[in-house]
Design goal:
This protein has helices at residues 23-37, 55-68, 85-98, 106-119, 149-166, 183-199, 213-220, 238-251, 258-268, 272-285, 293-316, 321-339, 352-359, 363-375, 394-401; strands spanning 44-48, 72-77, 171-176, 203-209, 228-232, 350-351, 379-383, 386-389. By secondary structure, it is of the alpha/beta class.
Length: 402
């Protein structure tokens, strides 16, 4: 097969594996945009799932849908220890410009409010030292500049929503890695979304994050479940995974045998990132079409080596020696559960008490490593007393390294 025409290479093709099986989410979002634009009440959206299921790709596709609907859009990725003011201001600045509202008057006022909101990120700083968000109008005094992020974000969203309503459009803000927002910022975002739902302004927040994101939102505001429509993004079914492989191949006049599709599903578990990684290597090494299960077997070591370096290894290297011990113990306890007759768990969900027993340590002594790994996004807690990898097949990788 021609590697230059590889339809599974990152960025190739019109519909990457990460979007296979996501038609329901795309259609639902189109309905949400239409309802909001008509002044009907609708909730903001949250996408949750493990790493490798295509949340970011889907988030970008939803943003493209909003752009085609002529909405103003902005996007940013939340990061630990980073406040919300600067990235939110930058995202809203882009969104306001996309609205296409004539300059002057109302637009200048809203841009001035965005600027005031952003510059409150540096309270007490001299004028020459303040961060400039690239907005050429003066900052508005007395609006979104109180210093209280909850008050300021509510005022900011209200003004942006009013501007969007004037032109009969909407504004959508997309936040990736939403679980990394600080507790104060999560609380402010929930309060702002609550105000939007009460006032029916055409502004929506679309967030993506790890499986425990709903618990993060609920811990901040008890009413958060009424603010957001939650969508769990999971691995693909056998049929969806087959279509994710077959459609790009058909565009290049190639095909997969049923045996090859079965072998690919067994190797990838239906996770879109793995489907793309294995698909790329199989295409490069397969001599002719149709691609067979033998081609998959030959290419599998190449795909696994690529994943070991770029997907698993890059994350493992971020952990300290003590944290790596904790991760390896998780993988070993998960394997013991399977050998004792338990079900195979792709993310290695284990009880923290079992980890302490396995390592012959007091549970309290393991807390620092666990907390650090939670902050680094390598593990998450889906329920009290249990933890799991955020990356599917990570336990298998760790056991192979050992």
């Amino acid at each position: 097969m021609d590697p230059i025409r590889n339809p599974y290479a990152p960025g190739a093709g019109q519909r990457p594996p990460e979007l296979a099986g996501r038609d329901e989410q795309l259609e639902r979002f189109r309905v949400v945009l239409e309802r909001i634009q008509r002044g009907r009440p609708e909730r903001s959206m949250i996408l949750t799932g493990l790493r490798g299921v295509g949340k970011t790709v889907l988030l970008n596709a939803l943003r493209s849908t909003a752009v085609r609907a002529r909405w103003g859009t902005g996007k940013y990725e939340a990061r630990p220890e980073q406040g919300m003011r600067r990235p939110m201001a930058a995202a809203l600045h882009v969104a306001v410009r996309e609205l296409g509202h004539p300059q002057g008057g109302e637009v200048d006022h809203v841009l001035g409010v965005i600027k005031a909101f952003a510059q409150k990120d540096q309270p007490g700083a001299k004028l020459r030292d303040r961060w400039n968000p690239g907005i050429d109008v003066p900052a508005i005094t007395g609006r979104a500049d109180s210093g209280d992020i909850e008050i300021d974000l509510v005022e900011l969203f209200t003004d942006v929503g009013g501007l969007a309503a004037d032109v009969g459009k909407g504004v959508a803000i997309f936040i990736d890695e939403m679980q990394d927002l600080s507790p104060e910022d999560v609380s402010a975002l929930c309060a702002a979304c609550h105000e939007l739902s009460q006032s029916a302004l055409p502004v929506i927040v679309v967030g993506a994050g790890l499986p425990h994101l709903p618990a993060v939102l609920s811990a901040s505001k008890s009413y958060s479940e009424r603010l957001f429509r939650y969508n769990r993004i999971d691995r693909l079914s056998r049929g969806e995974a087959a279509r994710a492989l077959q459609a790009p191949a058909e565009d290049e006049d190639a095909a997969w045998t049923e045996g090859a599709l079965e072998a690919m599903y067994a190797a990838t578990g239906g996770y879109p990132y793995f489907i793309q990684a294995y698909g790329k290597e199989v295409w490069d090494l397969a001599p002719v079409s149709p691609i067979t299960d033998e081609d998959v077997r030959v290419a599998a070591p190449e795909a696994e080596e690529e994943l070991a370096v770029g997907f698993f290894g890059s994350r493992y290297e971020r952990a300290t020696p003590g944290e790596r011990e904790y991760l390896r113990a998780m993988a070993e306890v998960a394997a013991e559960q399977v050998s004792d007759g338990g079900e195979v768990d792709e993310v290695g969900s284990v009880a923290t008490a079992d980890l302490a027993t396995h390592l012959d340590r007091k549970p309290q002594s393991l807390s620092p490593a666990r907390d650090a790994l939670l902050k680094k996004g390598l593990i998450y807690s889906g329920e009290r007393g249990r933890i799991a990898f955020t990356v599917p097949h990570f336990g298998r990788y760790l056991r192979a390294q050992a």
